[in-house]
C-alpha cells in the first residue's frame, strides 16, 4: 500500500518556462551538427592562440545573404544554416574592413561582427540586489551598513535538498560551505552537493541559497546540509539529525523550508527545542496549502519563526498558510532565484519555502548588530521593525496587475485541514521586517502625500506628490510595493489621464524609508455620440473614439442604446483568422473600461473581442453573448444578467460573482478566472460544462437552484472549500476533480452520476453526504486520501477503483448496494463492509497494489464483510485480503477461481453454496456447507481444511476424497420423548472461531414455515414465538447442544406440525440454522420404522398411541 510521506517539502517548486534563444545559424536541422562541430573547433583554436573571448569575437564577421559572398581577404569560413556565413579574421581591423565590404553588397541582408553576451547570473554584492523581495526588505541598505562595521560571523544552516556548490557565483562569495553531510537517499556520500537533474526540487536548496546570499552581508555564511532527496522528500530522522548536527557545528540560524501534517513528532520536536535552548533560531516555512498553519509542523511550534508569503503588492500569496501561529511574512511569489547548474538566467519560484530565507536573512542581520541577543530578543527586534498588514496590503478595485502563473499550482496535496481564515490579518502575523530599522535606524521618513484624493474623474488632471524636504519619492502604477530599486523616481507632477493605482514611498538619507501611500483614480470620459455607429435595433456596431474609458450616452443619433452588436469593437475582425478570443488580445486596442446606460440589455457575441476591458458597468444588462465579455475584467456591475452564452465571462479577473437573476450559462462561461474566490448564483438551473474549470482560487459557491452539474464544472478549483447546491440531482464527468482543498461535500438531492472521476484527487476530502445517490462510477473517489466519513445509503452500484487509495476509511456501510465492481477498494483502509443487499462482487475488490513494481500485495485492513444475500464470489474477488478472517455468506451459491487467493479467511459460512472453484487457503480453515453443494474443483493445498455439512452429502464425499476433516452439521433433527408424549428439537453449534456467543435460542411457530418468516425480528408473542436456551451443554470438541422440547402433547395434536429454527447471537448479530418442520406422528413413524432403534423405545412409543 502506498504510504503517506512523513515529511513534505513546504513548496511546490515552480520554474517558469525558459525560451532558449539559438543563434540564427542554428534554426534548421540538417546542418546543425556540422556547424556546431566546426564552431567548437574554431573556438578551441582561438583559445589555443591565447585570444581572449573579446578579441576573438571582434575578429569575427557574420553575414546573411541569399547568395554566398566571395570571401574578403584572408579568413576561415564556416557555412552556417539559413544562408548565414561566418568569417574568422586574424585581427579586429581586418574584420572591420571586411564588414564594410559585405555590408555594401546588394544581396546581403545583414552583416555584423560577433559580440559578447553577458550572462545574467546572480550578483551578490553589497551595492545591489536582484530580487524585488530584497528591495521590499531594504536589504541593500543593511548590507552596505554591515560592510562598514566589524560585524561578527553569523552562520545559517540550510537543511534542504543540498546546494549546487559548483555554481560559480556561489563559489566566488566564499560564503557557501559544504557540511559534508548527506542523509538523503540520493546524491553523493560525504557531501551536501545537490543532485543533478531537471526537476525543480533538485535546486530547491540552491534557490534558497541565492536568496540568502542576496539579502546578507559578507559576514554571513550559508552551510548546506542535505536531508532531502532529489524529489524533495526526507525522513524525520534525517531532518532531526541535521538539526542536531547544525547546532553542534555552531549554527546561529537554521532555515527549514519544509513541513509535515499534524502535531510535531517527538524526534523533530525535541531537536528543534534543543536548538532553541542552545540559542539557535529556527526559521520555518508556513506551508503552501492556504490553510491554518496550526495543522503543519514544525511551523506550529512555539520555538520557531513561522513565515508566510506575500506577493509583490504586499498582499497574501494565495497559496500561503495563515493563522495565529504565523509570525512574519516575506515575499514568496515569483521570486527571482539562481542556482541551476545549466542556467545563467534567473528562475522564478513561488511559495513559503522562499519566504523563509528572507526572515532567516533578517535574523542574521539582527544577530550581526546584536550578537549577544537571545532567540526571543532577536524575534522582538524583528517584530519592532515590521511593516504591518495595514501598510502592506493593497488592491485596486479596477485593475489587476499581479498575475497568477498557471504553474504556480501544480502538485498541491494535503490542505484545508482547518477552517477558512476569518480575517485577512491572519495572513500577516506581525508583518514584514525592515532591514534598515533592524540595523539601528530610528527616524522614519514621512509618507508621501497626494495632491488629489482617490475617486472617479471625468477629465485628466495633474497629480503632485510630496514628503520631507530632502526626500526622494518613488512610485509604481501597477499595484506593486514601491522601492527605490524597482520604481519610478518622482521628479515632476504626473498627468492622470486613465484609471490608475499609484503607490509611493519616500526615502531620505539617515532615515528609514516611509510606509507606502496609495491612491486610486478611476477615469470615466463622456463619449460623444459621433464616436459610435448604431443599427436600427439600437445596438452599437462600432466605436471610433480615442478615449479608452468611456461613459456611453443613452441615445445615439436619436436612437436609444439597447445593446452592443457582435464584433462592435473590432471593425476589421475576420472570424476565420482566430481560433479563440484570447488569441486576439495580442493585437488588441485597449478599451480599459466602459459604462453602459441602463437601457442596454444585451452584449452580443464577441462584442469586445479585441479589447482588454478592466471594468464594465451595465446595470440593465440581461444577456451576454458568446465570448461577449471574454476579457480580463476586474470589475463588473451587472446585477440583472439572466443569460450568459458559451465563453461569456471566461478569462476574467473578477474576485466575486453575485448574479442573482442568472438562469442560464453556456460552456466554459467562467473558465480560467484565476482570481475568482466567491460565487453566488441562486437562480442558475444547470452548471454548464467547464463552467468554473481552472478557477484556481475559487473557495465558496452558492447554487441554490441548480439541478445539474455538467462535465468538469469545478475541475481544478484547487482551493474550493464550500459548495452549497441543495437541489443538484445529476453530475457529469470530473465535476470536482483536483479540488485539493474540498474537505466536505453535501449534495442532499444528488441521484445519479453520469460520468467518471467526479471527486478524483480531492486529496483532503473527509466527509461525503449523498443520501440519495444511486451509483458511484469508475474512480469517483480515487486518491481521496483523507476520506473517512461517508453517507450514501441509496447507492446500488459502485464502479471500477471508485475508492482506490482511500487511506482513511474504516467501517463502511452501503445499505442498498447490489453491485461492487473490480478493484473498488484497492489500497483502502476499509476495515468492515456492511452491505445487506450486495449481490455481485468484482475482482480484487480489496487488494493492495504497488504502482512501482506493478504487483498486487496483501491488504491487512479488511476484517469483516456482511453481505447476507451475496450469491457469487467471482474470480479473485477477495484475493490478497489477509486481514479478512471470517465470511458469513448465507446465500452464496458460487465461488470462482482464486476468489480467496492469499486471503486470510479461516471461516466461511455458505450453506447455499452449489459450486466452488476455490476455498479458503489458510491453515485450519472451516467451511460450512449443506447438501446443496454439488461440485467443487478446488484441490486443497493442505489437509487442515474442515468441511461442515450434511452427512452423506457431496460435501462429505469431497472431504473424504481430499483427506479433509468432515463434521456433520445435521445434528438438529426432531426426536420423541416417549416418557411424556413430548417432541424435542435438538441443535448443536460448533464454535470453530471461539467467539463469545451472547445468546442461544429458538424461534418457532405452528405449521410449516418459510425460514425468512422465522427471525427474531418477526417474533410477535402469538404466531411466532421465542425461547432462549439457558440450559445447554458444551462438549470437549467445543460443540454446544441445546434443545427445544414440547411435552404432554394430546393425541388429537399428534399430526400438528411445528417449525423451529435455532439461532446464536454474536457481536450483536443473529446467525440462524435451517428451519426444521416436524409433527409428533412424523417422528414417531420414523422411529418405529428405524431398525437401529431398540424395541424398548418402540414399545414405549406404541403405548402412547393406545
UniProtKB/TrEMBL annotation:
UniProt keyword Signal present: yes
Residues in domain GH29D-like beta-sandwich?
453-514
SUPFAM superfamilies according to UniProt: L domain-like, Subtilisin-like
Q: From which residue to which does the signal peptide run?
A: 1-26
Question: Under the GO molecular function aspect, what terms does this record hold?
Answer: serine-type endopeptidase activity
Q: Any idea which UniProt keywords this protein has?
A: Hydrolase, Protease, Serine protease, Signal
GO terms for biological process? proteolysis
> Residues in the active site?
160, 204, 353
Question: Mind telling me which PROSITE patterns this protein's record contains?
Answer: SUBTILASE (PS51892), SUBTILASE_SER (PS00138)
The family database entries (InterPro entries) matched by this protein are listed as: GH29D-like_dom, LRR_5, LRR_dom_sf, Peptidase_S8/S53_dom, Peptidase_S8/S53_dom_sf, Peptidase_S8_Ser-AS, Peptidase_S8_subtilisin-like
Q: Where is the Peptidase S8/S53 domain?
A: 154-390
Pfam families for this protein: CHB_HEX_C_1, LRR_5, Peptidase_S8
Q: Which PANTHER family match?
A: CEREVISIN-RELATED, PEPTIDASE S8
Q: Which family does it belong to?
A: Belongs to the peptidase S8 family.
**Name of protein:** Leucine-rich repeat protein
Instruction: Write down the species.
Output: Candidatus Eubacterium faecipullorum
Amino acid at each position: 500500500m502506498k504510504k503517506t510521506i512523513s515529511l513534505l517539502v513546504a513548496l511546490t517548486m515552480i520554474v517558469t518556462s525558459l525560451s532558449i534563444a539559438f543563434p540564427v545559424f542554428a534554426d534548421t536541422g540538417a546542418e546543425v551538427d556540422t556547424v556546431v562541430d566546426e564552431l567548437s573547433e574554431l573556438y578551441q583554436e582561438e583559445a589555443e592562440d591565447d585570444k581572449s573571448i573579446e578579441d576573438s569575437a571582434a575578429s569575427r564577421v557574420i553575414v546573411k545573404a541569399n547568395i554566398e559572398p566571395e570571401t574578403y581577404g584572408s579568413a576561415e569560413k564556416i557555412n552556417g544554416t539559413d544562408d548565414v556565413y561566418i568569417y574568422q579574421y586574424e585581427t579586429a581591423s581586418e574584420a572591420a574592413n571586411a564588414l564594410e565590404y559585405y555590408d555594401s553588397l546588394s544581396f546581403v541582408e545583414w552583416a555584423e561582427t560577433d559580440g559578447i553576451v553577458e550572462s545574467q547570473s546572480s550578483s551578490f554584492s553589497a551595492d545591489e540586489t536582484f530580487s524585488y523581495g530584497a528591495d521590499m526588505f531594504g536589504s541593500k541598505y543593511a548590507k552596505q551598513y554591515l560592510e562598514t562595521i566589524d560585524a561578527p560571523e553569523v552562520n545559517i544552516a540550510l537543511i534542504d535538498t543540498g546546494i549546487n556548490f559548483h555554481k560559480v557565483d556561489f563559489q566566488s562569495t566564499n560564503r557557501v560551505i559544504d557540511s559534508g553531510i548527506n542523509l538523503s537517499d540520493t546524491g553523493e556520500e560525504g557531501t551536501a552537493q545537490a543532485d543533478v537533474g531537471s526537476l525543480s526540487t533538485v535546486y530547491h536548496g540552491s534557490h534558497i541559497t541565492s536568496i540568502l546570499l542576496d539579502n546578507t552581508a559578507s559576514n554571513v555564511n550559508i552551510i548546506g546540509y542535505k536531508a532531502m532527496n532529489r524529489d524533495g522528500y526526507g525522513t524525520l530522522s534525517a531532518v532531526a539529525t541535521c538539526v542536531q548536527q547544525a547546532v553542534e557545528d555552531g549554527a546561529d540560524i537554521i532555515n527549514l523550508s519544509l513541513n509535515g501534517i499534524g502535531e510535531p513528532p517527538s524526534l523533530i520536536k525535541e531537536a528543534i527545542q534543543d536548538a532553541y535552548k542552545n540559542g539557535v533560531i529556527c526559521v520555518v516555512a508556513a506551508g503552501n496549502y492556504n490553510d491554518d498553519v496550526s495543522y503543519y509542523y514544525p511551523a506550529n511550534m512555539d520555538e520557531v519563526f513561522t513565515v508566510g508569503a506575500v506577493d509583490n503588492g504586499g498582499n497574501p500569496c494565495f497559496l500561503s498558510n495563515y493563522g495565529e501561529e504565523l509570525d512574519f511574512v516575506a515575499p514568496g511569489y515569483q521570486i527571482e532565484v539562481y542556482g541551476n547548474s545549466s542556467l545563467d538566467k534567473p528562475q522564478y519560484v513561488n511559495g513559503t519555502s522562499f519566504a523563509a530565507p528572507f526572515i532567516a536573512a533578517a535574523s542574521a542581520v539582527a544577530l550581526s548588530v546584536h550578537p549577544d541577543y537571545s532567540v526571543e530578543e532577536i524575534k522582538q527586534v524583528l517584530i519592532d521593525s515590521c511593516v504591518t498588514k495595514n501598510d502592506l496590503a493593497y488592491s485596486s478595485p479596477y485593475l489587476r496587475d499581479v498575475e497568477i502563473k498557471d504553474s504556480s499550482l501544480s502538485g498541491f496535496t494535503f490542505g484545508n485541514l482547518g477552517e477558512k481564515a476569518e480575517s485577512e490579518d491572519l495572513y500577516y502575523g506581525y508583518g514584514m521586517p525592515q532591514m534598515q530599522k533592524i540595523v539601528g535606524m530610528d527616524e522614519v521618513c514621512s509618507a508621501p502625500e497626494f495632491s488629489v484624493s482617490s475617486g472617479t474623474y471625468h477629465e485628466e488632471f495633474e497629480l503632485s506628490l510630496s514628503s520631507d524636504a530632502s526626500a526622494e519619492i518613488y512610485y509604481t502604477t501597477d499595484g506593486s510595493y514601491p522601492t527605490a530599486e524597482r520604481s519610478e523616481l518622482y521628479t515632476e507632477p504626473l498627468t492622470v489621464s486613465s484609471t490608475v493605482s499609484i503607490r509611493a514611498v519616500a526615502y531620505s538619507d539617515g532615515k528609514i524609508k516611509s510606509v507606502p501611500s496609495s491612491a486610486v483614480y478611476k477615469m470615466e470620459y463622456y463619449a460623444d455620440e459621433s464616436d459610435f455607429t448604431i443599427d436600427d435595433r439600437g445596438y452599437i456596431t462600432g466605436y471610433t473614439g480615442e478615449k479608452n474609458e468611456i461613459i456611453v450616452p443613452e441615445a445615439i443619433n436619436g436612437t436609444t442604446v439597447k445593446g452592443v452588436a457582435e464584433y462592435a469593437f473590432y471593425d476589421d475582425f475576420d472570424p476565420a483568422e482566430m481560433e479563440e478570443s484570447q488569441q486576439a488580445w495580442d493585437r488588441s486596442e485597449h478599451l480599459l473600461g466602459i459604462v453602459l446606460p441602463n437601457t442596454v440589455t444585451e452584449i452580443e457575441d464577441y462584442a469586445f473581442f479585441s479589447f482588454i476591458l478592466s471594468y464594465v458597468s451595465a446595470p440593465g444588462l440581461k444577456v451576454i453573448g458568446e465570448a461577449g465579455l471574454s476579457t480580463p475584467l476586474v470589475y463588473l456591475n451587472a446585477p440583472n444578467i439572466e443569460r450568459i452564452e458559451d465563453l461569456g465571462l471566461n478569462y476574467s479577473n473578477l474576485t466575486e460573482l453575485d448574479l442573482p437573476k442568472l438562469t442560464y450559462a453556456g460552456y466554459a462561461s467562467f473558465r480560467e478566472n484565476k482570481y475568482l474566490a466567491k460565487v453566488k448564483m441562486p437562480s442558475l438551473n444547470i452548471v454548464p460544462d467547464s463552467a468554473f474549470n481552472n478557477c484556481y482560487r475559487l473557495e465558496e459557491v452558492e447554487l441554490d437552484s441548480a439541478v445539474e452539474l455538467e462535465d468538469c464544472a469545478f475541475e481544478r478549483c484547487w482551493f474550493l472549500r464550500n459548495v452549497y447546491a441543495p437541489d443538484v440531482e445529476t453530475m457529469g464527468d470530473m465535476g470536482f476533480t483536483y479540488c485539493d482543498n474540498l474537505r466536505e461535500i453535501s449534495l442532499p438531492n444528488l441521484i445519479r452520476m453520469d460520468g467518471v472521476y467526479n471527486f478524483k484527487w480531492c486529496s483532503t476530502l473527509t466527509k461525503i453526504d449523498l443520501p440519495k445517490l444511486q451509483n458511484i462510477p469508475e474512480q469517483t473517489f480515487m486518491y481521496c486520501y483523507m476520506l473517512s466519513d461517508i453517507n450514501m445509503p441509496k447507492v446500488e452500484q459502485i464502479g471500477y477503483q471508485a475508492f482506490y487509495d482511500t487511506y482513511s476509511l474504516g467501517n463502511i456501510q452501503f445499505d442498498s448496494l447490489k453491485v461492487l465492481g473490480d478493484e473498488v477498494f484497492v489500497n483502502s483502509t476499509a476495515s468492515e463492509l456492511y452491505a445487506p443487499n450486495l449481490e455481485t462482487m468484482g475482482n480484487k475488490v480489496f487488494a493492495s497494489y504497488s504502482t512501482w513494481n506493478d504487483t498486487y500485495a496483501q491488504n491487512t485492513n479488511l476484517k469483516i464483510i456482511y453481505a447476507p444475500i451475496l450469491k457469487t464470489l467471482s474470480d479473485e474477488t477477495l484475493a490478497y485480503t489477509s486481514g479478512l478472517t471470517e465470511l458469513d455468506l448465507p446465500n452464496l451459491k458460487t465461488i470462482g477461481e482464486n476468489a480467496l487467493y492469499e486471503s486470510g479467511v479461516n471461516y466461511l459460512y455458505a450453506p447455499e453454496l452449489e459450486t466452488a472453484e476455490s476455498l479458503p487457503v489458510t491453515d485450519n480453515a472451516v467451511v460450512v456447507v449443506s447438501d446443496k453443494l454439488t461440485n467443487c474443483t478446488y484441490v486443497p493445498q493442505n489437509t487442515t481444511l474442515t468441511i461442515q455439512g450434511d452427512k452423506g452429502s457431496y460435501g462429505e464425499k469431497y472431504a473424504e476424497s481430499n483427506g479433509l476433516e468432515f463434521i456433520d452439521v445435521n445434528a438438529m433433527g426432531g426426536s420423541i420423548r416417549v416418557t411424556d408424549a413430548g417432541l424435542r428439537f435438538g441443535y448443536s453449534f460448533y464454535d470453530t472461531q471461539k467467539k463469545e456467543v451472547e445468546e442461544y435460542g429458538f424461534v418457532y411457530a405452528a405449521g410449516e414455515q418459510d425460514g425468512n418468516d422465522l427471525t427474531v425480528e418477526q417474533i410477535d408473542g402469538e404466531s411466532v414465538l421465542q425461547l432462549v436456551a439457558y440450559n445447554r451443554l458444551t462438549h470437549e470438541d467445543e460443540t454446544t447442544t441445546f434443545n427445544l422440547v414440547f411435552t404432554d402433547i394430546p393425541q388429537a395434536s399428534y399430526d400438528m406440525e411445528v417449525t423451529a429454527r435455532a439461532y446464536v447471537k454474536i457481536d450483536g448479530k443473529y446467525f440462524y440454522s435451517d428451519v426444521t418442520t416436524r409433527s409428533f406422528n412424523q417422528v414417531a413413524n420414523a422411529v418405529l420404522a428405524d431398525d437401529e432403534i431398540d424395541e424398548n423405545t418402540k414399545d414405549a412409543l406404541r403405548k402412547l398411541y393406545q
